Amino acid sequence: MLATELEGLGLGPCTPRRGAVAFRGPLSAGYRACLWSRVASRVLVQLGEGPAQDSDALYRTVRGIPWRPHLGPDHTLAVDFVGGNAALRHTGFGARRTKDAICDQLRAATGRRPSIDLEHPDIRVHVHVAGEHCTVSLDLAGDPLHRRSAGVEGGRAPLKETLAAALLLLADWPAAAAAGRALVDPMCGSGSFLREGLAMAVGLPPGLPRRRWGFDRWRAHDRALWEGLVAEARATPRRPPPPVFGYDRDPGALETACAGLAGLGLGEAVRLLRVPLALAEPPTEQPGFVITNPPYGARLGSVADAEAVMALLGDVLRRRFLGWRAFVLTGSPRLARRLGLRPARRIPVWNGRIECRFLDVPISSRPVERDRPDAGPVG
Ligand SMILES: C[S@@+](CC[C@H](N)C(=O)[O-])C[C@H]1O[C@@H](n2cnc3c(N)ncnc32)[C@H](O)[C@@H]1O
Question: In the chain, which end has fewer C-beta atoms inside a 10 angstrom radius, N or C?
Answer without folding.
Answer: C
